[in-house]
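Late entry, NAI complex.
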Amino acid sequence: MTLRIGVIGTGAIGRDHIRRITNDLTGGEIVAVTDVNAESAKNVVSELHLNAKIYENGHDVIKADDVDAIIVTSWGPTHEEFVLASIAAGKPVFCEKPLATTAEGCKRIVDAEVAHGKQLVQVGFMRRFDKSYRQLKKIFDEGKVGEALVVHCAHRNPTAPGFSGDMAITDSFVHEIDVLRWLLDDDYVSCQVILPRNTRFAENGLQDPHMILLETKKGIRIDTEVFVNCKYGYDIQCQIVGETGIANLPEPQSVLMRSEAKLSTEIYVDWKDRFIDSYDVELQEWIDSTVKGEMNGPSAWDGYVVAVTSDACVEAKHSGGIVAIELPERPAFYDQGNNKVLIK
Ligand SMILES: NC(=O)C1=CN([C@@H]2O[C@H](COP(=O)(O)OP(=O)(O)OC[C@H]3O[C@@H](n4cnc5c(N)ncnc54)[C@H](O)[C@@H]3O)[C@@H](O)[C@H]2O)C=CC1
Ligand SMILES: O=C1[C@@H](O)[C@H](O)[C@@H](O)[C@H](O)[C@H]1O
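Prediction complete; structure with ligand written out below:
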């Protein structure tokens, strides 16, 4: 069976997902697209040679009889509306992060999904599908470094065009929030944000870098340097300090060069290149599981936890204090074991 997919939002990542589903992946076909910028939707259809209908708006895509599943890649503030409409239509929906721009919005989605009675929502946290994070998780789950005590991370972008306010947390650090609780099989209880000396390359009054400290239920302490104008490249680091050893996130594969009296390897500059394989795996697994009637990726609950944690980090940044991260009990609906990513 081919999964007939409708895409809402044909900007940067929407177009990229359409390209990979059309050219690189199997089992899915883009049959409907829409964008508030009609020109953008038209261009994607013609440039990628899609056999897809262009709709006036997202709701018409969701309602279309020949659309089995939805991908939401429009701007963040529109996500909640389209995810809720997909649940109301009983259609599986893959929503890019954020699930909603507020924790309350994410909770409304969780409540709607639970009331619907079947998991339909997957959130686009692609690091869980990254080969290197999966290798690290496998080593950790096999007990090769013992129980985790401390985790050191870095999230560095060369530049952050368009970033303002708290986006280093709400747009970038959200990926660590998601992937680390998956990696450690734990949840957060508190956070603190320390503001180091600012780089002169930060624009729009942006604080950069941030040092973000998280404490988990099991007592693991996580420190992350989020530095979005680091200049030298896109660099994601993660090191688990365990009771019996240290496990590092593998560096992306790249050619080791001996040239001009230097031994060197290249560092990516664009997150799209660093995570290109992860997006492929993420969307392929989403198509495969959706066709089987399953939902195996980051759930609406995971999207909600990220929003609550991210809000707490923003509060901690502005208050300078340690902020408790409080979550309601996870609904038993999400305990059924069908929302776990299978580790390869
Ligand atoms: N998982 C990841 O690593 C990444 C996730 N994202 C997320 O994907 C989303 C889109 O990001 P980009 O593609 O970079 O932005 P973009 O601005 O390039 O594209 C968004 C598109 O949505 C369209 N749009 C806005 N409101 C709409 C509506 N109501 N109906 C239909 N179309 C609408 C815009 O016209 C635009 O073409 C964001 O939420 C972003 O956070 C983006 C990059 C990476
Ligand atoms: O989602 C993403 C970007 O929006 C964000 O700006 C980057 O910092 C992240 O690493 C990337 O994955």
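The first helix runs from residue 12 to 24. Will revisit in the morning.
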